[in-house]
Structures are given as structure tokens and as C-alpha cells.
Amino acid sequence: MFSYKTNCVSWDPLDIDSLQNIIDNAIEITRRTFLKHTFKEEISFLESSLGYAKHYKQGLTMFQDWCVSYHRSKCNGRRCYFFCHSAIEYLFFGDENAN
User: What domain range is 58 assigned to?
Assistant: First the structure.
């Protein structure tokens, strides 16, 4: 499983080339595929902190937001996942990617 580690705003500015490679080489995937590889609790927390409703009857959910995109890529040869919300990438890495 892949855990949330950081977003592009908090990325190490000395390693911006790695971030650029992640974004440039990304493949768009479905939300369903993204959720299969990430922890539900972390996604729920991020959705809430970004202002999304938990249920469509309570307001806009992240699932309903057509502006959010989901991606798979590689960082230093290892797979990672991210979603893009308001032009900010939220990056998820497996344990082997931990620094």
C-alpha cells in the first residue's frame, strides 16, 4: 500500500527535478485504481481537509469533482501515486520509497 507523504508545495526545492520527472512521466488512472493502492483513512482525512463532503447529499464529494485527476508514476525507479487538486499534486509512496 502507498501512504501520503507530501504535496508539491512542500517538496524539497533542492530535488525539484525528481518532482518534475514524476509529473512529466505520469499516467492518468481511475479513482478506483488509485483507491486500490492507497490507505482509505488517509484519503478520507485529505478529502475532509480539502473541504469535500463525506456524502453527496451533504455537498460536493471528491468523487464528484471532475477537476481532480489521479495518476501513477515513478520516483527514482519506484512506483508512486498522486492525485491533482487545484494544480497541487498530493503524492503517495510505498515503504520502499521512504526517506
Answer: 3-97
Residue pLDDT, tens place only, 2-39: 999 999 999 999 999 999 999 999 999 999 999 999 99
Closest CA to 92 of 10, 4, 1: 4
Answer for the pair 75, 97: CB distance below 8 angstroms, yes or no. Answer: yes
Amino acid identity of residue 21, one-letter, is N
Q: How many domains does the chain have?
A: 1
pLDDT (tens digit per residue) in 48-70: 999 999 989 999 999 999 999 99
Its pTM stands at 0.88
Three cell numbers written together for 53: 463532503
Q: Tell me how far apart the alpha carbons of residues 14 and 6 are, in angstroms, rounded to a whole number.
A: 15
CA–CA separation, 80 and 75 (whole Å): 7
